[in-house]
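Here is an idea for our session: we take a single protein and study its fold together. Which protein we use is up to you, so please pick one and set it down. Once you have written the record down, we can walk along the chain together:
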Amino acid sequence: MIGQAVRRAEDKRFITGRGTYTDDIRLPGLLSAVFVRSPLPSARITRLDAGEALSVPGVRHVLTARELAGHLRAIPLIRRPPNADRLPSIPILADERVCYQGEPVALVVADGRAAAYDAAARVQVEYESLPAVASVEDAVRDGAPSVHPETPGNVAFQHHLHAGDPAAAFRAADVVIRQRFVNNRVVPSSLEPRACLAWYDPARDLLTCWLSTQRPHHTRWFIAEILGIPEHRVRVIAPDVGGAFGAKEPMYPDEVAVIFASLRLGHPIAWMEDRRENFVATTHGRDQVADLEVAATREGEILAVRGAIDANMGAYLYPNSAGMVLARTGPLLPGCYQIRHLDVQLRGVFTNTTPLAPYRGAGRPEAIYYIERLVDLVAAEVGLDPTEVRRRNFIPSDAFPYDTAAGLTYDSGDYSAALDRACALLDYETLRERQAALRKQGRYLGIGFSR
């Protein structure tokens, strides 16, 4: 098998339309659910009236926050920052206030999806708009509106990453470069949006949930914790999943609402996120702003890194969101380089935006972006080729296992050999000559390196 192409066995049923996704599953008595979501990023709910919605033919129920009170536990955090006890829990349905556009306010259950959509449009919700903040830089400014009263200043958590003697390293440096970096927010947008079908069988005392999830066993634990029931009374089935990218890992409040509605009404209930919902209700990724300095010698040796990284958490801290910064971006900041001195402040910041969670690397690509750009900036400042600066700072192959200044232990690696091989495959010297020749013609050929 090693080194051989392996024919995929699952492709035929997908390309012939015979896959089975959550929305393909049909059960007797199945009802459909549609959410009413906030159109505003920050507002007080002054009125919620479901009377007209309940008069739509086929509508069975309209679930609101009042009906949930006292029946559900908070969605637990997997990675708990130091001050987690004072952080607001994630509302299953908004009660009194909404904190981001797309936050679920009510759940309409009907005999069919069309009736549920019609009724959702007739749920009357009145809002009193409140000041909002959308970016981390606006959120941490003096006098910024608080996303949550219990977190003035909008800092959800912070951690100081410190190692060695960075102050002395910066004093001894020949070169100090400061740069602001922006990792833009992204939307995972998998081909199949999120979906949930819940059914409670009283004869077996078993709750079965079909979910488009990438972690069914963990999801079962979440459901049991939130409902306060033993795990053996919960079964989670992940059928075919049309993409996830990290966004189908956490437990979402709207999924909990669907499960609760099924238990309350005694019917299987299915919800399928539409694409418009997906852009505001499913977690986003990235969205970090970093202000970093690097200290180096004229020979290109990197001595230290210091600064601050602010990560947007959105309106609520989702179960695995803090880990993106605390367990990934911060610890991986030194990368594959011998950097022994660090002084970096990590912060998770609340804003009135869709919550953020892991996406494709879960904080690692952000760290790699920062350190690799800093290496390039050093190379440009001291007049060395970017590959040479990397070679001079790589952890040597005979130093493994290697304890980094950020607290990780790398078990093995030969970074110089990997870079040499890449340069040979590229015919790097010829590529640089071509770049120089094209530049004389006013044409620009970019050459970049990252690990």
